[in-house]
Design brief:
With 286 residues, this protein is mainly alpha-helical. The chain has four domains: 66 residues, Serine Threonine Protein Phosphatase 5, Tetratricopeptide repeat (Alpha Horseshoe); 61 residues; 43 residues, no CATH class; 58 residues, no CATH class. The protein is 78% helix and 0% strand. This is Tetratricopeptide repeat protein.
Length: 286
């Protein structure tokens, strides 16, 4: 009898341990799943920022195929395709995202961005029209401004640009776009002001520096602005000012600027030297 009780006790202990073991294994599996999810989220964030765009596309293609119900992975694929400049494919993937449960206004803005990048302005306008006015974000108003610009709705564009600037702590890009919009309208003074402001947020942007010189040249202000620039950048900016001067009929000023560009560049400046030679040859002929 005592032996039977002992065996039952041992069996009971074994069953209890087995149950505990099963419970522990389940908890471990659950914990590991949570850790893997966190690691995967971190990896997705990395892929969307510092990773090579093509590698990011491969990662999200594989991940979204393995987990087709995860909208975050499909979003990652759409964003990576935009970074990789595969805009037509990005449009298709964004449309797939919008058909999934959990899609929202940010995804519609993502689709509009891809449509603009593929030069489908009408589609982008239609997509943005589906975003409610209560959804107020920098990206939304930046795109609204660009669409208004494309249709020469200047008052709307200015309003949208102004709103976009107020919704970000890094407005350099949108200020540059706004400045270029002003420049294309022939308002060099306003463009100059916006480019100068953009450089206070991103002083290393050569595109903005070049646009600033173009805005000043449109007002026949050909001297270099007081901004940080390397010797090579200065030569390039002088070249930009020179071409603008020549285009506006200020040929002698353009010639002087070309010569200064050639003298300033630390290496042989072929384009400026060729333009200067062409001017000199034309002067001899005339």
């Amino acid at each position: 009898m005592r032996q039977t009780i002992l065996i039952c006790a041992l069996l009971g202990s074994a069953l209890t341990l087995a149950a505990c073991g099963a419970r522990d294994s389940a908890q471990e599996a659950k914990a590991m799943k949570a850790v893997n999810a966190i690691d995967e989220t971190n990896l997705s964030d990395i892929m969307l920022t510092v990773s090579d765009p093509k590698e990011a596309v491969k990662y999200f293609e594989r991940a979204s195929t393995e987990s087709p119900d995860r909208i975050d992975l499909k979003r990652g694929l759409a964003k990576s395709l935009v970074r990789a400049k595969s805009h037509e494919r990005a449009i298709t993937v964004w449309q797939e995202v919008l058909a999934m449960p959990g899609a929202g206004d940010a995804d519609r803005v993502g689709l509009a961005d891809a449509q603009i990048r593929s030069n489908d302005w009408a589609a982008a306008k239609a997509t943005l029209a589906t975003v409610p006015p209560t959804y107020e974000t920098y990206d939304r108003y930046r795109l609204e401004a660009m669409v208004a610009d494309s249709q020469k709705e200047w008052k709307k564009a200015d309003s949208f640009y102004d709103t976009a600037v107020s919704l970000t702590t890094r407005p350099a890009g949108v200020l540059n776009n706004w400045g270029f919009s002003k420049l294309t309208r022939g308002d060099g003074k306003a463009a100059e002001k916006l480019f100068a402001e953009a450089l206070t947020y991103n002083p290393s942007s050569f595109t903005t520096k070049n646009n600033l010189v173009l805005a000043r040249a449109a007002q026949r202000k050909y001297d270099m602005p007081v901004i940080d620039m390397t010797q090579t950048e200065r030569a390039q900016l002088l070249y930009t000012a020179a071409l603008s001067a020549i285009k506006q009929g200020d040929v002698n000023t353009g010639r002087s600027l070309l010569q200064e560009a050639v003298d300033t560049n630390p290496q042989y400046f072929e384009e400026a030297a060729r333009a200067l030679a062409a001017l000199d040859a034309n002067k001899v002929k005339s």
